[in-house]
Amino acid sequence: MDPFPEKPRRLLVFAPAAEDARLLRQRELLSGAAEGLSDRDLRVEYLTGDRAAPARREYGVAADVFAALLVGRDGGVKRRYPELVASDELFGHVDEMPLRRREMREAEEGREGRGEGP
Known about the structure:
By secondary structure, this protein is α+β, with helices and mostly antiparallel strands. It is 42% helix and 20% strand.
C-alpha cells in the first residue's frame, strides 16, 4: 500500500526569469515525455519570479540560479539537477526510488494476475 497515495512526485524547475533560455530548453526536453511523466505520477512545475520565492526559500535555491529538484511523494528532495535534465535521465532516477520500484513490481504482478504478459 502506498503511504503517500494522493501526493504526486514533482520536478520543480527554478529559473531567474520566464524567458531564461535554460527554462525554455528544459520545457522542450520534457515536452514529448507526457506518457512517462504520467506513468510515474510526476508533475513538472516551472517556477520563476516572485511566484517562486516561497519554494526557493523552502528548498534553498537562490533567486539567480537555474535548478531542477526531484521531489518524492514524501516531500523530500531526492535529487538536485544544477543543469538541464533529459527525460530518460530523470525517469532513470525516479525508477531507482524504492517506492517507484514497488509500484512497478505491483503493476507487473497485477498484469500477471490478469493473464497479461510483460
